[in-house]
Request: fold
Amino acid sequence: MLAGCEDNSVRIFELNSGKVIKKLETEASVGCVLGWEDTIVVGDHNGGLSNWDSRMFRIIDRHESIHYSKYDNGVTCMGRLGEWLLTSGADGIVKIFR
Reply:
């Protein structure tokens, strides 16, 4: 299980024990996190989006300011539909990435 945290981290939990097995340090406070296959996508409160390799636990790429920050919130929600990544932000905009 993945959890985005206000302390600029993403924690990965082992479900049976509830223990944190990995803590990923991010550049900003995490608004939302989504994981699938070998990728972890992190949306932060600065409006940025980071793609992480879930096997090596390192950033693959980062996109700054995909959403404008408003009231200390940037990326507020993410979803996946097939090969598409959908994001929404505090700026009231929904974006679709392939």
